[in-house]
Amino acid sequence: MTVAPAVRLLVVTDDCLFEEYTAAAVRRSPAMGVRSVSRLSAARETVADGGVGCVVLDWEFSPARIGIFHRSLRRERPRLPVILAAGRPPTELSAVGSYHAFVRKTGPEMGTSVTDAARVLTTADVADDHDTTPATVE
């Protein structure tokens, strides 16, 4: 009998290494499952189908398109935890918007950073509070 993971991550990226490192970290955590998509339409469908406990957005995927997707996600599912991942600090990103945690994309440890942030965000009932300072995991 297979037990469904307690936390299902949706990773939106076209970065094969980021996807691989995150999947490897999730495999070490039996309470998590992961699905990666490289199309925003697939991300929308997956969120609409339900069962997603946390969304990870790769800012470098396409900043403008990720920004639009993120804003619509915040309107439709304001309590769904969002982790933003980027190769540079959030202060250097334009029009980031509200997110619950930030992960710096730097080597194999970035996958562990994603799972650590997701574990914290999904354990604590994330409120619809866009004025809080997001956590940064580097």
UniProtKB/TrEMBL annotation:
<protein>
    <recommendedName>
        <fullName>Response regulatory domain-containing protein</fullName>
    </recommendedName>
</protein>
<dbReference type="InterPro" id="IPR011006">
    <property type="entry name" value="CheY-like_superfamily"/>
</dbReference>
